[in-house]
Amino acid sequence: MLLSSALTSPSELSCYLLFVSVLSACVYVRKNTKHEVPTLQRIPWHRLSQRQKALLPLNFSESWPVYKFLDEPTALGEFDWGIHDEIVIWRENGTFIFIYKDYDKAYAKRRVFVILENVQGYNLHYMVYGEREAAIAETITFFGSLKHEASPQTVLRFHRCNHCSLSLDLSSLLPEQLAQMLDSNPTRCIDLEADFSAKQSEILATRPYPLDLLLMKGEHTFLDGGTAFVEALELRKSPFGKLIVSETSNGGMLSISNLERLLKLEYVFQTLDLSIRNTVCALLPFNAKVKTLYYRVHQANDVHPESFDSLNIPAIDITPIFVFEWSFAWHTRIISFLNRVAVLGHFERLCIGVDYGSQNRERFLFDEVASVADALTAALRANQRLSCLELHQTRTCLLWGPHLRGIFECAEEHPSLREIRVQSFKLRDGSDGAEDENRVFSRRYYFDRSWLKRLLSRNRKIVVLNEFGERCSDGSTIDQLYALNDVYNGSANLVKEATDLRPLLVTKAFTERASNNFQYTALLLSQHTDVLCELVQGVDQEDGAPRRSNRLLRSKRKTEDSSRARKKSRK
């Protein structure tokens, strides 16, 4: 601004303004605390060659800015995605990278859409256009290998449009290119829709770190039926991590023989998530030796109830989703499964899901659901290490709510159960204004709130949540019970603290949380009577001035010393 005011000549001022506008439009420089990273240079539309314009989709808008790299980045953090969320980048290998924030704005001309979810606070969608498949594969590898902050919530997805005219498959990637993308950010989930060669399959199975891999459904497959993938897994010495295979059937991702081999692997996978449409091996995944098993049982009506009697089910965390094509005798299958769960008795997390197929929309009969709830209660009682019970992954064909009373009563004295998830239903706008709390609660959760109040009063360590992880509440008395239980559990945790710190922490909890509430005070005093006695005995009325016990003073000094040490180490 000072410079512009110093320019007196109109021609000088015009030149200055032109310089500033060109500088701001052509070069974007991101200031970094460590160094300056010049990344992108704007290419005006009229500067694009006919070859470059020919690569752009027919419906491409000139309003989209086109850039080129000044210095190719090595990390996603070198971009400010809040500014550059919809741009086109030209690379010298003859490819364009389209980056857009909304999936609906994608130009459906290529078969591969690449999506980065939950990376540095953004969801990035991009596509690559080019003349040669090798160049496109190289650019996909380059952008898919840019490093970013490690987070298990980040997902790299490769999706195909099967109705597009032009063909680009991930099989175009060289094995070393696939390995480069996997190795660049090993903690993220990889979601792939592709036809994998044997070499690519080996790359997937032999990463030296746990992999979180999702192999998508559709027309995609291992070109060899999964033989190379399974053979590499059989030789693996370290845990694989998590494998999700969606909707395998005859001619699907894995052949039946290779699926059987995969399920015989002993604790190679920590988590296995399968969706199988084959009645011959419908129950085989239950015998998989894994810690966590998610399994969608298609055509569950075709499974004989007595078939569950011989299952081993090594998993301790299990989520079966039973899909019924019709409602006849559906409950006998789930009861047989729950009876087996009760016999085995080693589960720590159990989620029961029920879905209906394309032919079934009937709501299951009350008495049938009641018999399933009775079997679930017996399974809950037999599994004393169960910490989590989830019932929310169920369509409206099955209403758990009216049958939760017995389950809640069983949970009252359960030694390990800490969380129950239930179904909830959205109320119509304005429907709860003229109704009392109990009726609104019943319409939202389909059970009486007195059942929940009794459970929370008798088991203070448990919470009941909806499918979104929110506490089931009526907005008043149940919230008060949760608050009381939070104080109870927080107070109980203080008992586990170091002996020298307990007096100070109990005093702090009393003055900051419990002093104005009789119930909170009673809870604290009942659990920390020894500390109360020590504090009372430590008051010295000598010289008319109270003095804390030496032990309390020592604990306070120890806490202050630790705090100062942490501040010093941060500096």
Q: In CATH's first tier, which class of the domain at 306-315 and 330-475 applies?
A: Alpha Beta
Q: From the 3D structure, determine the CATH topology of the domain at 306-315 and 330-475.
A: Leucine-rich repeat, LRR (right-handed beta-alpha superhelix)
Taking the alpha carbons of the first and last residues, their distance comes to 38 Å
Q: Report the count of strand segments.
A: 19
Based on CA atoms alone, the radius of gyration comes out at: 31 Å
Unreliable stretches (pLDDT < 50, length at least 5) are 1-38, 103-111, 541-545
Report the mean per-residue pLDDT as an integer.
Answer: 79
CATH architecture of the domain at 306-315 and 330-475: Alpha-Beta Horseshoe
Structural class: alpha/beta
Helix content: 25-40%
Strand content: 15-25%
Shape: globular
Largest sheet: 19 strands, mixed
**SS element count, helices:** 18
What would you say this structure looks like, in words?
Residues 544-571 are annotated as: Disordered. This protein has 571 residues and is an alpha/beta fold. Among the domains are: 306-315 and 330-475, Leucine-rich repeat, LRR (right-handed beta-alpha superhelix) (Alpha-Beta Horseshoe), CATH 3.80.10; 496-570, no CATH class. It is built from 18 helices and 19 strands. The chain has helices spanning 2-6, 10-26, 50-55, 133-144, 175-184, 198-205, 227-234, 256-263, 330-344, 366-382, 404-411, 437-445, 449-458, 477-494, 502-514, 518-527, 529-537, 550-570; strands at 27-31, 36-42, 66-69, 87-91, 95-100, 112-119, 122-130, 155-160, 189-192, 211-215, 241-248, 269-276, 292-297, 317-324, 349-351, 353-356, 388-390, 419-421, 463-465. It has a 19-stranded mixed β-sheet that branches. A hairpin with a 4-residue loop joins strand 1 and strand 2. Helix 9 packs parallel to helix 10, helix 11 (404-411) packs parallel to helix 13 (449-458) and helix 14 packs parallel to helix 16 (518-527). The radius of gyration is 31 Å and the shape is globular. The two termini are 38 Å apart. The model is unreliable at 1-38, 103-111 and 541-545 (pLDDT under 50).
